[in-house]
Amino acid sequence: MYYFPSLIKSTIGTNGVVTDLNIVSASIIGRTRSGVLAGQVGAAGISNVHVSGNVTGKSGVDYIGGFIGNVAGAAIIQNCSATGDTTSTSSIGSAGGFIGWLGGVGAIISNCFATGDVVASGVVGNAGGFVGWVTDGDIVDCYATGDSTGHVAIGNAGGFAGLMNQNIGTITSSYSTGAPSAATSGGFCGSLVVNEGLITACYYDSTTSGKSDTGRGIPQITEDMKLLATFIGWDFTEDTGVWNISEEISYPLFDLMPSPATVVSPANGGSDVSALPLLDWSAGSPWTPVSYDVYFGTTSGSLSLISEGQIGTSYQLLSALSRNTEYFWRVDSIDQNAIDTGTEWSFTIGAFAPPLPSGTSLVGGEQTGTATGTNNMVTIKKLIGFANNTMYYET
Fold first, then answer.
1. Are residues 366 and 237 in the same domain?
2. What is the model's pTM?
3. I need a labelling partner for 283 at 20 to 30 A (CA). Which of 193, 222, 244, 371 fits?
């Protein structure tokens, strides 16, 4: 007996269509073929479906995917994503962040990504950041960012694919950034059997993966993975292309994806900033996110969320900040596909310097000198507070 666990449907067969669907925080524990959307897919059409949640398989032989367990027919899957960890604990199994086993003649997977970690702990286990095992079908313009772990004795693990052992399946114009670990492992593909023409124009981050193998994916250091010139033959046509990239900031993303926000004010590293600044940023042109999360604090790398899911590109702080203090902030860009974590920026609030009448100066916190001029009036714009019989204000 076969068990095909999933949240929506065990099997999506010929002529089945699924589109415009979001599944959040799923938890799947199954056997044989398991995925958040479906255990197995035939010649179906799936587009604009995004899932999050963890999938675990527990049987003698299983195929476990963060999105689909097994693609067995000529499925067309595009503009989809899976964010969540995938685990196969069976003795023989293939696990992938998106698909466990891709074996459908005529299947095409495009513009999809996976971000979760993948484990295939069985004695014979294949683990891939995107797909565990490929025997047929085509993958084009996809990426994976999770780590992959296969068995230390016999298993295969790759940043994108665990095992490719037929000469029919292909992977083109795709990349990975995760770290693979297994008896046989590779930065992009763990094990490639038959010929090396199955993987074309694909890259992996040699810095984050700790790998440098060639012939089944091209290694590039992190800095080069964030340069457009690295990705030869990829479609970066503005507005109409598949990919976009914020040079020296992010890896390639789909042009349906949010791009990192850019700071407007206060300027990054700015000093003598007003005690009540307006945080202002702009969307990464030309791709405009749906919303933003704003993080703020005094400790770099440990910021608090102060605004969630806001639409506008500015945020007014409501309480005056401390003088002579450095503050850090970050804006994450969000759309229906993913969250792009922003760059951390900083600024420093200047020391308080109250305006003084002409002819006087501030020495050791005390006003000295003799005021000159008519009435010696100072226009006050903003009252800060009172302390020790002194009024503090800004003009």
1. no
2. 0.67
3. 222
